[in-house]
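Q: A reviewer asked whether we had any structural model of the full assembly, not just the individual parts. We don't, so I'm hoping you can provide one. Inputs are below.
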Amino acid sequence: MRTAPTILHLDMDAFYASAEQASKPSLRGKAVVVGGLGPRGVVATASYEARVFGVHSAMPMGQARRLAPNAAYLVPRFGFYRSISEQVMALLRALSPLVEPLSLDEAFVDLEAGERAWDAESARRVGVRLRADIRAVTGLTGSVGLAASKMLAKIASEQAKPDGLVLIQPGSERALLGPLSVRTLPGVGPATGDHLRRAGIHTVEELAEAGEDELVRLVGKAHGHALYAMALAHDERPVVAERGAKSVSVEDTYDVDIHDRLRVGLEVQRLADRCVRRLRGAGLSGRTIVLKVRRYDFSTLTRSETLRGPTDDPAVVREAAARLLDAVDTTGGVRLLGVGVSGLADYTQEDLFAQAAGAPVELPAEEPADAPAEVRPAPTERHWRSGNDVRHERYGHGWVQGSGLGRVTVRFETPDSAPGRVRTFRVDDPGLEPADPLPLVTRRPGGPVGSPGAGPSPTGPADAGPAGTAPTGWPGGPRSGDGGVAGAAGPVREHADADVSGAVPGDPGAPGEYRASAGAAGARRAPAGADGAVGSGSARGAGAPGQESSEPEPASLPKSRSGTCGPMDTSSP
DNA sequence: TCTGGGGTCCTAGGACCC
DNA sequence: TCTGGGGTCCTAGGACCC
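A: Here is a predicted structure for the entire assembly that you could use as a starting point for your response.
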């Protein structure tokens, strides 16, 4: 294992929820829950304000609504998050060729490979500057862990949350790990945790004391060896860039169980097409087709079939999936169906045959999102999804706060505006149209293109030009208006980095405005006066079409299955 | 209002081959 | 002709992660 803490782990704080708060000024400092809004939805991310109520990832949405009835509930906008993620990953790649993304909001970086750091001090400097650059470029905060191994860097970033940096000094690893719960270790989930607990093993120290043979006996060969190594803080896994995909899959959970066998078959065909579309989009083909069925009682089964050669032919995948379905009993109903392809290759033998035979390989078009207006179905509540951006010919840019009863409620605000007003329209209002998200950080007018409005980091942007990294995937380019994102403007502070080595996890005593209140820990504070924009929260019906709410507070709409935003929180901190 | 969607890795049994 | 021992592939399920 290396002797310097030069493996960096970055984890963005409450990423989806923070991105929504940065995009929507009226949500800053408030409980925000991002996830599926249907009857079977779960929480993807809860803002720190929502976590105060006990809301957390993977929790059923119904439970979240009971715990935090006044939170704002939004559907995830992955395209938006991906564009932010690309900006962050570009900053990381400027540090090292060895960047290993784990998800949209998380990655390992080998700083030694990038010759950016060789000891604790240089590593810490890189981490401090990275956090500043991330905030300058995206307006969001991320937590950084630095250590001599991937496992410890990840544990460090977890301890740094939110909005902090923790460096684990080489030599202190075992002392630091010892008292921690076994559940802290990556790979120890509920099942393994219970298993170990029943064997009297609660802490990492007890794991090490149990010995390797005992652990292998308890949890199996691979897991046992891995667990013992982790308990001794041994982790030699290298940071690996470019890990090719091993499978591609799509699945849908239905709001209501499907009983009709015919309908089940049709859904499987649709999923097969969607899966192939994704496969082709990635330039891949695969040999093994997998069908997944979750029954009414939540029991899940998979059936798979391996072809003689890889394919990306929708007809071939459809037929295989249909054959697999034939062998499955669906009486009682199914709640989820999925189709996947594994055994991936980046060429396809069957395609060569198909081309040789002159057989066209066609895929039905996806939903006609880009179809001309006259072909598109008329807008309905479902068309205006909670949280999505819209533009009104008269009122400008805003986002859907809720819809129902033929009306859609829009809050007109932009990332760099004050919290905005709410107006209600008919769902088929001709002046209203869907819009792309706006950049979270505004460019200074007249400034160099790509210069962050929030100002440069104390040490300036990293050499490869993070500040020169234009936001990808956003239309519009430079926009007028000065100042950065509210709360991110002004000098970038590094207060949270003060508690570097040997930091106390989640030390609330760290000075600085971002930890000013426990409830808002890590959340960017709304600008002064924002609080005044939120009124009594009295439940108001949607106004008449086109009518402006008399108060800037959100109007409350009746719940509808199209996903209404509840009245926005007035009770959260 | 009880449980998403996209992945990874491991285990274990049987087939099959040498 | 009473019976081995690997290795690899396929299939099914489960734990875990974000």
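A: Points you may want to mention in the reply: The longest strand of chain A covers residues 247-258. The longest helix of chain A spans residues 261-281.
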